[in-house]
């Protein structure tokens, strides 16, 4: 058997949080959108123009009842601009939710249902075909100690300096699991882009150099007192393995 420690159960787990959102959602069923507001705005413009024209022509007639004239203008505005439009949109969303529930489909954000009417294509993807669950290193931004000097970007990973590659390879909390580095995805991408690989849990070695515990460099201590970098690290791919003697917690979340 295997001894395991359960960290989260019930609503504290990822699936539990999703179920709690579905069962106890407090989001109001509304359908307010920018297009609906724009539609009402256009109707309001036409209503105001029509009411102004009726009022202007009515005031020219001295025999016309002013109260009925003003009432007529108000009726024009209220007739052109439907006050029940937001309620009708909300009712449409509610009916859509009821139809989805009948086929065992639950919606946690009902206000997005009207946006589904714009969907013309639907693509279902499996991780590894169109998308991937790993990170790729595109470049490194070098920040100088001088505050007035702008930061420089190294887009080509192959042109990294020895210090940059060494920091990328050694500043991590990765562990070996079945021969593969496991840990924070950002740290995995940095290690792969540095030209080093994880020879053991505390040893990083250049990609073209076989790991040799006896060949560890005495000057390559990372995490303790920072001393002079070894000259062999100037060419990471031909250098010697480096041992990590101290680690600091990090998370990219």
UniProtKB/TrEMBL annotation:
InterPro entries: ATPase_P-typ_cyto_dom_N, ATPase_P-typ_P_site, ATPase_P-typ_TM_dom_sf, HAD_sf, P-type_TPase_V, P_typ_ATPase. The chain crosses the membrane at residues 36-55. Coiled coil: none annotated. It is found in: Membrane. The keyword Iron-sulfur does not apply. Signal peptide: none annotated. This is Cation-transporting ATPase.
